[in-house]
């Protein structure tokens, strides 16, 4: 059985399956921008073209990974988002990147996450989605709260930021029934 990854439309963004041809100059440029990757774990690894391509291909091909391109205006790529389902339990981790700085601060990240969570809970039947963020990543911490996540723990001094300072990683989780209560804020027309 072939795994089908659907296209997920929202008012301001659409999530569509990431394909190999999406690994283009704009995609590669996001990983060369220190400001874009400063809160990502990849910031510690030299980001050469081949390493980025291997990583993207791995996400495309992984049987329990749902890797999407975030697009606006029909086909302008502004970022990526992925859901990584545990093969044994109905739980998944996720991560996202808005690589286009001109799209920071708008509705794009929130809408992309809402679409992904709805897909995860309603289509895949997940019971829990989780993620973490560095304590210095204020926009992501804000988004967790806005989306209804519960702060579940702190891994103290778990990472080193771009200034060489030890920072905490804050862990968050969202359960299916919590999303059911929260989702109407993002899907009001239903």
Write structural notes for this entry:
This protein has helices at residues 25-32, 34-37, 49-61, 108-123, 138-147, 176-182, and strands spanning 8-9, 14-17, 65-72, 76-85, 91-98, 128-134, 150-160, 166-175. With 190 residues, the protein is an alpha+beta fold. Strands 1-2-3-4-5-6-8-7 form an eight-stranded mixed β-sheet, with helices on both faces. The longest helix has 16 residues, at 108-123.
Task: Explain the layout of strands and helices.
Elements: E1 8-9, E2 14-17, H1 25-32, H2 34-37, H3 49-61, E3 65-72, E4 76-85, E5 91-98, H4 108-123, E6 128-134, H5 138-147, E7 150-160, E8 166-175, H6 176-182
Parallel strand pairs: 5-6
Antiparallel strand pairs: 1-2, 2-3, 3-4, 4-5, 6-8, 7-8
CATH-derived architecture? 3-Layer(aba) Sandwich
| Class from helix and strand fractions | alpha+beta
Quickly name the level 1 CATH class: Alpha Beta
- What characterizes the major β-sheet? 8 strands, mixed
Physical arrangement of strands within the biggest beta sheet: 1-2-3-4-5-6-8-7
Total strands: the figure is 8
Provide the low-confidence segments as ranges. Answer: none
CATH superfamily: Gcn5-related N-acetyltransferase (GNAT)
Separation, N- and C-terminal Cα atoms: 31 Å
State the share of residues found in helices, binned by percent: 25-40%
**Overall geometry:** globular
Order of helices and strands: EEHHHEEEHEHEEH
Specify the number of helices: 6
- Rg over CA atoms: 16 Å
- Let me know the average pLDDT: 90
CATH fold label: Aminopeptidase
């Amino acid at each position: 059985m072939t795994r089908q990854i659907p296209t997920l439309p929202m008012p301001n963004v659409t999530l569509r399956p990431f394909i190999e041809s999406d690994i283009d100059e704009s995609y590669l440029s996001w990983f060369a921008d220190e400001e874009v990757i400063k809160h990502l774990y990849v910031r510690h690894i030299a980001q050469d073209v081949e390493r980025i391509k291997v990583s993207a291909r791995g996400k495309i091909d992984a049987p329990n990974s749902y890797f999407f391109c975030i697009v606006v205006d029909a086909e302008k790529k502004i970022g990526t988002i992925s859901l990584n389902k545990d093969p044994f339990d109905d739980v998944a981790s996720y991560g996202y990147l808005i690589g286009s700085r001109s799209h920071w601060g708008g509705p794009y990240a929130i809408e992309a996450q809402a679409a992904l969570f709805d897909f995860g809970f309603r289509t895949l039947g997940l019971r829990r989605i989780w993620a973490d963020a560095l304590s210095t990543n204020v926009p992501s911490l804000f988004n967790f709260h806005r989306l209804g996540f519960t702060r579940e723990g702190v891994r103290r001094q778990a990472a080193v930021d771009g200034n060489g300072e030890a920072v905490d990683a804050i862990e968050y989780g969202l359960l299916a029934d919590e999303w059911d209560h929260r989702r109407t804020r993002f899907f009001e027309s239903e």
